[in-house]
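>> received
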Amino acid sequence: MRLGIDATSVAPEGKGISRVQRRTVEALRELGRHELVVFARYPEELEGALPVQAGRALAWEQRGLPRAVREHRLDAMLTWTERLPIVGRGRYLVWLFEPPTHRIRQNRIAGAGTYQRASDAVTLGLWKRSLRRAALVFTGSQATADAIPIAARVLYPGLDREFVPGSDRDGRYVFHIASADPRDDHDTALAAFELARREVSDLRLLVAGGMRRSGGNGIEYLGRVPDDELVRLYQGAAAYLDTSLYEGFGFQVLEAMGCGAPVVATTATSIPEIAGDAALLCPPAAPGALGDMLARVLADERLASRLRERGLARAREFTWERTARMLADAVDEVAG
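>> returned
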């Protein structure tokens, strides 16, 4: 069975979907059930990948994908786009992590440029009809499956192997990841930290990611950090704070649990199904409740220890081996 993989989002030091595509290729290769034909814009990032000429994503989706299916005689193609080719044959397995309508709303709020607005208009016109042509649609969470008008199966990604607990725990800082994306709700994180700091005066807040502010008053902005430093930050934290308003899949919550950090987070979209009973959760945009929960974790070592144990157990359920088996079974189902 020849399975094509549209790994065109993989990029040097890429995160998010780039990391998901990279790990998917690696896990399926390790499983070894199918012959893989991998397509990448950075083929040097994936051994044996075939190069895709850099250019507009829409051109690859509409012309490149069906050409790849035809020329390489693929039995199925795995892709992460909701804009499948309008013409041409092929069995496509699509893996979505959020509805495109949500991303388009965010682009409008951010004042996207002319090309992005045009691309979004094409997406709005295509995505529902496109997904109905798919042989199978996966979503990264039940929350995303519930948000799209097409039948889908939930397929969780795995937790990368480097996210493991460590032996050194600082215990005096809260860790948070934020960007300029409004759905991170960074201001709520700051407010919750200030409330918790009233109970623990020497508490610090370490913020990684693309958010850039001046800091001070116990708050330090670290910028983007490499994966090894990210793991150390999770491992050493007294708690991980996630104030997200929207998560197609709660990657950071899962990573924090895998590193043994007690998690305090919102109930936004996918977070409750990822965290299970291994985190303290409250509704989004509630700094008072989040601050209270942080203070509880910092003051109660038994509670913190219980959250760590539950988080580690929960994180062990998310493996790339399991993801690869489910994908391989789906390929056999639709192309067998």
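>> The two ends are 8 Å apart (CA to CA).
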